[in-house]
Specification:
By secondary structure, this protein is of the alpha/beta class. The chain has helices at 4-18, 49-57, 67-79, 99-105, 140-146, 170-174, 180-186, 193-198, 206-220, 227-236, and strands at residues 23-26, 37-40, 87-88, 110-111, 125-126, 132-133, 138-139, 166-167. Strand 7, helix 5 and strand 8 (166-167) form a beta-alpha-beta unit.
Length: 242
């Protein structure tokens, strides 16, 4: 296993201890998260491993692949990492309207790319080609750049109406990232869990927020579910989610 699995296992253990099932958007093969859902985390950007793999597969002198060909290759490659996945969130939230028909053709029913930070009243929305957009209410990167919640559960506005999909990154949780400068400083050690642990912030940060959040979920008996289950519920019982 890659050293980074130590970081992922840490995050999985936090969810398991709280009895909360999450959706893990996988970037490579071998990401096993028993008891949780797996989605896809494709990287459509031209500096990513998938695009480099596509170029390496082409014969010498072949024309540059079209956008549709790139998208199809990336989706096919990433789907091989989690064949059961029914949804995705792209690297850097890459999205465009022509992708939706390809999402559907590759069995993707939901798209978690839309992000609407701390907006009340969110609900799933049907896109073209029967793909359901599930907007993200909060991502840990928001606090790294804006300190919007101060890494406190009260700042999440749980009492506001609407769906609340929360996005946490394993490395940011592992180092208890306090701001973007802290996170960027650890990037050279991305695959070195010992160095990352040594760089863990002792104060408030992404990890303390997640731990407090999991405690709050247990104390208030908040209903939690996976992205795939949100998709299923919205399609079968739309009134449940607005």
């Amino acid at each position: 296993a890659l050293p980074i699995s130590v970081v992922l296992a840490d995050l999985v253990s936090l969810f398991d201890a709280a009895g909360v099932a999450g959706t893990f958007f996988v970037t490579h093969a071998g990401v096993e998260v028993p008891g949780h859902e797996r989605g896809l985390h494709p990287n459509f950007r031209r500096n990513g491993d998938s695009y480099k793999a596509l170029l390496a597969s082409l014969p010498a002198g072949a024309p540059a692949p079209s956008d549709d060909e790139v998208h199809a290759f990336v989706l096919e490659r990433t789907r091989s990492f989690a064949p059961e996945a029914t949804g995705l969130r792209s690297h850097c939230l890459y999205s465009e309207s022509t992708l939706h028909w390809q999402f559907k053709s590759f069995g993707m029913q939901y798209d978690c790319n839309p992000r609407m930070p701390l907006v009340p009243g969110l609900r799933p929305v049907r896109l073209l080609h029967d793909v359901v957009a599930i907007p993200t209410y909060y991502a840990d990167q928001l606090d790294l750049h804006t300190a919007a919640t101060g890494f406190r559960v009260a700042g999440l506005g749980f009492d506001r109406p609407g769906l609340k999909v929360l996005d946490f990154h394993p490395n940011m949780v592992y180092i208890n990232a306090a701001d973007d400068d802290h996170y960027q400083a650890t990037r050279p050690s991305y695959h070195d869990p010992d160095a990352l642990l040594a760089a863990r912030n002792p104060g408030r940060g992404v990890r303390t927020l997640l731990l407090d959040l999991l405690e709050e979920i247990a104390a208030r008996r908040v209903r939690t579910t996976t992205a795939g289950e949100i998709n299923r519920l919205w399609r079968t019982l739309p009134g449940v989610l607005g």
